[in-house]
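retry 2 of 3: previous attempt timed out while embedding N-hydroxy-L-asparagine. Reduced batch size to 1 and resubmitted. Inputs unchanged:
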Amino acid sequence: MSSRRKFIIRSTQASLGILATKSLQGCNTGIPLSTETNNEIQPLVISTWKHGIEANDAAWKIINAGGKAIDAVEQGVRIPEADPENLSVGYGGLPDRDGNVTLDACIMDADGNCGSVCFLQHIKHPISVARKVMDETPHVILSGEGALQFALSQGFKKENLLTDKAKEAWQKWKVESKYKPIINVENHDTIGLLAIDKQGDLAGACTTSGLAYKMHGRVGDSPIIGAGLYVDNEVGAATATGMGEAVLKTLGSFLVVELMRQGRTPQEACEEAVMRIVKKQQYKDFQIGYLAINKKGEHGSYCIHPWFNYALHKNGENKMYDADSFIKK
Ligand code: SD4
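retry 2 succeeded.
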């Protein structure tokens, strides 16, 4: 058996182990809170995948203290960005096929301001560079070398982001060099985090090392406003995870928010956005997961394949939930 294949199997087993542990810890299924209605402001934090629990905690500290959603989302996603064990975000992210860790991130606030960096190397916290793009420049997106130069000019430190663990995984991949994204495993763990603060304002952040072993220079959906993330303070917010190309082709997060504007619930909007992909693309080969919230504090989630999960911090609890899926378990 090839070492790449062994790696995939090991990854799958590890992930199943995580899922088993999660269900023992009381991971909830379905979308129990998504149909509730409430006229009062419901502060909340919601984010993709299991690393969302710690990210939500950091974001919630700010929300709970009366802080702004935009600060909460930035601080929240910095937690997985700094975690060397996390193979898909920031420091420790799996590299492209040439061994370079290249990062994508974006952030958006309640006033429609946004900032983004893509194809950024050597900076541990791309989300904070994206925030600086938003706050300190007249632009929305900076990329590659220009984004790096900007980050350095803002006092960010140049670092080696390729950890031994990620390097080892890449070296195993190189034995076969087959580009085949594995659903829910290895390639899919972007963090997208959405928040409502006590003033009722929304914000979102999305950050990733992108698809593992991608072509050098590839940019996914995560740093593209409207694709990986969108926030409209009158309506709601959405974020995406999974195969970025499919989200880019449908401008998924913008679509979800626009569907909510037309009266869909967050759940209905996420389902429709997934259906747009399912109808036209080879959906069996990849995963897409959407998360959405509206102004009322209702949320929704939907994915193509089972096992996309998310963390929701609301009403004093921070818990994992499994999203409903187009393909059933
Ligand atoms: C990308 N959407 O670069 C990202 C990858 C991802 O969970 O979300 N992984 O295509």
